[in-house]
Amino acid sequence: MEQIRQRMAALRTEADESASKAEEYKNKVKSLETETTQKEQEITSLTHRNQVLEGEVEKLEALVKTFKDEAGAGAAAGSQAEAMQRKIQVLEEEAEESDRTIRELNEKLRQTDVKSGHYERKVQALEQERDQWEAKFEEMQKKFNEKEAELKALADELNAI
Question: Where is the composition biased (Basic and acidic residues) (predicted)?
């Protein structure tokens, strides 16, 4: 009987140890279940965050594409601006050349106006001189006609004698 009691005590001890281990395992299972729930929540949170981040990545990729397109357009605009700048420079040079030509032409016109004024005065002086000569000619013509008439009258008198 003693053996049974020892065996029973051993079984009780074993049962107590098993109950203790079972309790320990239950606690461990609860802890693991809690940990699993936390991990699942963390996974759900991370999955949601991952989806949000993927959405942001898509938006950012679209922005990058837009920026690349705009950069390409900016480069085209830059080259167009350079072409326009060169064209402006050429037009400015042509304008300067035109200004120089206009100044030269204005100087020549001024000189021509001065010469024209000088020649106009000469023409007026010559016209006055012509008018004086015409007046003298008319006066001399008158005198000639008078003298011719006197000469004719004298010739007629001499013929009559």
Answer: 13-42
Instruction: Tell me the pTM.
Output: 0.40
Three-state DSSP state, 1: coil
Which H helix or E strand runs over 157? helix 2-160
Q: State both tokens at 100.
A: 């120089």
What 8-state DSSP symbol labels residue 141?
Answer: H
Instruction: Give residue-wise pLDDT tens across range 26-85.
Output: 888 888 888 889 888 988 988 998 899 899 899 989 988 898 888 787 778 788 889 899
Tokens representing 90? Answer: 């050429």
Reduced to 3 states (helix: H, G, I; strand: E, B; else coil), residue 161 is: coil
